[in-house]
Amino acid sequence: MRALFAALLCLPLAAAAAPDQALAPLAFEQIAPVGTKMPRFKVDAAWPAMPSDLLLGQVSGVSVGPDDSVWVVHRPHSLTGTDTGLAQTPPIAVCCKPAPPVVRFSADGRYLSGWGGAASAPTIEGVNQWPASLHGVFVDKDGTVWFGGNGKGDHVVMNYTAEGKYLRQIGRREKTGGNDATDQLGNPSDVTHTDGMVLVSDGYVNRRVIGFDAKSGGYKGRWGAYAKPPVAPTRSGDFDQSHAVDPSKVANPKSPMFADIVHCVVPTKDGHLYVCDRNNNRAQLFKREKDGGLTFVRDLVIAGETGGTHTVTDIAFSPDPEQTYLYVADMMNGRIWILRRKTHEVLGAIGRVGRQAGQFTWLHSIDTDSQGNIYATEVNTGRRVQKLVFTGIE
Fold first, then answer.
1. Which of 14, 217, 236, 277 is in the most buried spot, having the most CB atoms within 10 Å?
2. φ/ψ (deg, to 5) at 262
3. Phi, psi of 306 (to 5 degrees)
4. What is the pLDDT of residues 361-380, one digit of tens each?
5. Burial of 89: CB neighbours in 10 Å, binned 0-12, 13-18, 19+
6. Is 2.120.10.30 the CATH number for 116-310?
């Protein structure tokens, strides 16, 4: 048996060829009146084409780069020994080993590159700065990659080149100072780099949005719900996934404070910002002011009575200049809601809970490319990224 594994290990990896599209229908619910036009999608069940020996764990973030390449971050530690038999010493199976934590795919699904891990990050005051559990990813217009972490001590946002070279970070692992801290974070969930600002949803220990100057790294401001000072209590102790299904966490879409998972921070082209208040089943919309401040605009409630893992985990837009359509990822209900962004009218929803193509288990992060396709990731036992192919406005 060991000889067989050794022989297999010596075989060259086949290039990840672009798969033939195998488009399958999606569950669809129309909510707007019959005849209302809206985006339609099918799922590409053959996307992506992973190298034959690599496997993704929980895929906690997706971002489409300026060249339409698709970046994901995942959690190798979520894989078990029976998933990664090839990585055992000696190998106990012909497949697999964890993919690198940061992976880049082409739009047609080819595996382009992967990198990351403790060896790529600096050690500061004896603490390696690579997050224990990656969360969220954003690729800026210059092609650099930003991501945070929500594992034990992961109070950092990291910034790397597309080739995997460390550039800088915000915060320090194992150091957190609560909602009032201006140079420390508390398990950041998401990050964006826009209009000279780095904005972070600081989100699993703290309950706020915090902003920094993109060039100097200097502190610019911090905000709680309704753009008021972030006074909500911070999480006591480390986050673990049991907290995500705590039945005592009842959504309050009218709460004056963010709930205890502030999950996304997503800018628009016209100077606004959506923040995912996941455990309150809502997003909040803010206007970005010229001085870097935020002004509250409105609440956006999605399936407000939902319990369990709750609803609003991420937001994306159609790629037209007006970003006409708004897509909202709903973790508990396993669907992506389609809204008209100008009015926030709910038009319909795609997907359902499940494990087949076009279904979702712990739907977590979404983004769109220049062609209008949606990429959607899953955590917990979902552990994948799917491509939902835009088929037109009907």
1. 277
2. -90, 110
3. -65, 140
4. 999 999 999 999 999 999 99
5. exposed
6. yes
